[in-house]
Design brief:
The protein is α+β, with helices and mostly antiparallel strands and 463 residues long. 63% of the residues lie in helices and 13% in strands. The longest helix is centred in the C-terminal third of the chain and has 69 residues.
Amino acid sequence: MLKSFSIVKRYILQKHFAPFVFGTFLVIFLFLMQYLINYLDKLVGKGLSAWIIIQLIIYQLGWMVVLAIPMGVLFSTLMAFGNLSNNSEITIIKSSGGSLVSMMQPLFVFGILLTLFVFWFNDAILPETNHQAVVLYSDITRKKPTFALEPGQFSSQITGYTILARYVDSASGKLTGLTIYDNSKLTTQNIISADSGYIRPNVNFNKIILTLFNGEVHQTFKSKPDVYRIINFKDAQIRVDAEDFAFHRSNSNMLSRSDRELHITDMEKIIVGLDTNMRQRQQDLDKILMTHLNYLLYGKGNYEKFNLNYPNIKNEKIVKQINSLKNAQLQSDFFRNSIQANINLIESLRKRQNQYIVEVQKKYSIPFACFIFILIGAPLGIVIKKGNFGISALFSLGFYIFYWIFLIGGEKLADRDIISPVLSMWAANILIGIIGIILTIRVNRESFKEPFLVFLRKLKIIR
């Protein structure tokens, strides 16, 4: 009997593995296509090598893998148990003494292993890929597009130069009817006209060489406006730095990291530091409140600080009382502003701390979804009794959207200090986990109520 159950468990894992690999890679492919659609126009036309673009895509694959694996688990669990139910294999296993929980045991082990793997990847690999992607994309955005001229249009791509070519031969690269405005020097301005010429980079691609034929230079001096010089030439060369057109990689260690580019240990140190800072600010606030309270109760303050003159009031006693009231008002304003400044600072520190707590909890909650989706996917697959691609993909997408709405919404609420950061990141897991436990118990006992089955039949999900 034990041997037969071990065979069943291996069989269930086999039914689960292929859809998991397919579903995971499909989700990664969809994420990748979405990314390319949104960012491809920012990458092409800049003269970047294919390897640079491939590196950026590889770095972006990090977050795609983290999000795709839980969805692949849900898709494969629905598909595997839907096929088992549709082929009446669930009934056969139950008649042999098995239960739904025993059938789910190998998937629980698989889910725990995946949870540990995704957690490791989420903490060890993802922060580095996120940081490298941010640095590389920043370097790409700083690079100017490959130099090109359109006929009849002014171009200012080269710093300090404005170039007009009235005709461009795309085959040979020859430019005809050239006018160049040279503003690269502070003391002089040159206007260069030439019958023809070429603009090409040098061998190292660190210079742009302007080769001109049959033209003249009109030169003026800013310090001597009455001096005007014309220089004729048959051929001339102008060499311009092409640093803006070259791609340079930044040192990733020199750039600061956001919360999504930090490891858990790094964020925990920041959280402790922010907590210490908040406690110190709270102590300062308590001191200010206590000082203000003593001032209000016992009148401790320097009433003679300001010597105000009231020419219409001759009584010195009245003048002194007015001065005291005026100083009391100034002192009260000072206390109020100090209190408000400390409160604002504490709130700012708490919101910043919540952002890091959210990110830490997210590194735990998303991997744990691998286990939770098995808990909901197995009984739901048995109920719908359809293991085809369409139904499994539809339910997977629906639950994942539900999960993602809770995750994003919870993150926003936690960042604004409306709900607990821990609860915001675990609410979706808790809710889906409770639904999964209830479904598992009911499917195992075959105790579904008729209205629920009628509802599924109306949607044509079950027969």
